[in-house]
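Why does residue order matter? Because the sequence determines the fold. Keep that principle in mind as you read this record.
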Amino acid sequence: MTPLVSRLSRLWAIMRKPRAAVGSGHRRQAASQERRQKHAKSNSQAKPSACDGLARQPEEVVLQASVSPYHLFRDVAEVTAFRRSLLSWYDQEKRDLPWRRRAEDEVDPDRRAYAVWVSEVMLQQTQVATVINYYTGWMQKWPTLQDLASASLEEVNQLWAGLGYYSRGRRLQEGARKVVEELGGHMPRTAETLQQLLPGVGRYTAGAIASIAFGQATGVVDGNVARVLCRVRAIGADPSSTLVSQRLWGLAQQLVDPARPGDFNQAAMELGATVCTPQRPLCSRCPVQSLCRARQRVEREQLLASRSLSGNPDVEECGLLAGLWEFPSVTWEPSEQLQRKALLQELQRWAGPLPATRLRHLGEVVHTFSHIKLTYQVYGLALEGQTPVTTVPAGARWLTQEEFHTAAVSTAMKKVFRVYQGQQPGTCKGSKRSQVSSPCSRKKPCMGQQVLDNFFRPHITTDASNLNSAAQ
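Structure:
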């Protein structure tokens, strides 16, 4: 992909959205988040440094400013349709897994919760196919909490051998002993108390146990659920970041079916694992495709692509966070000549006729969006003595250089701009971070650095009502 940066006697640029995809994983994201939560609790009395606060503040401001109703569900009817479609699909297509059979057949709530707990811990960092035999062997050897509590750590490690991350097995046994010795053999009944009282149980695991075993209407977010939610609501920011994660948990809580919370949560995970996969998702088999904003974007862009004979987009590339200003880009062409032609056509669509002879290659930027690594080839076009167009297309605006550094601009585009700055005479020297985070400080700014008139095009949809409160 190739963003195009242009410079006049007054610096300016044209921007649009990048193409990014949502991250992958099964229980990996949930497990890592739970570890961070536990670590945060143990250090809750520590005073954060001033530097940490300053470093994190810009990212939080950008993400808060970028949340749009486009990424939320419009109304109760849409939520109801999502629940109904997903659960109907799950009832017909769910995989026959041993822990699901146990949860459905077990009458005793404590034994049911224990069965769910073991499966969720084993599934962290491990594929379903690998877990099945380990889970069956574990439950045959220790069918109850009391059985596991009386086992030795050596026995636990022997049975766990091959699953990896041995601390998971140790903490599972520690939790069983605590339930037996301190809680009278009864599992905590809510997600809040499960997370509070059991070692190694974080937000995701607690929610899974509470919803599946005890019917608590609490949503859960693991890697699969995050991917489904991000695509359904076209969210392309890093789902592991704090603010995006909070939004996803809010969406999950909004969607969970109060009548069948356990089945709903398992259905959402099942959808991500078998249909809405990281690579080559099976959109035609998705029960909620009519509600998926990423799919809607793909269909619109495919229609436009068929008219322009350009390449078709993929759903993996259409989970984008509205409100982030980005340089325009075109898909990489096989030859330099075709690449330059594509770049000029894209820029002329916004700025009118441009001299092809002044287009020059400035450098390369590599950036990773979740599980996809993108390479940007950066080009510049100097239009000395000319003035920018005064007519601003819909959804675009001009920014000064100072405004660029405080606007909702992606990290990738900051890298692109650093490449441009490095090619200009008189550019301030110093660290890459200083070149991006603040304007150059000179008594008399050099030509081309006095004003940055950035011409951006965001992807913002205004057809949805304001539902910011829905994800609180």
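The longest strand covers residues 372-383.
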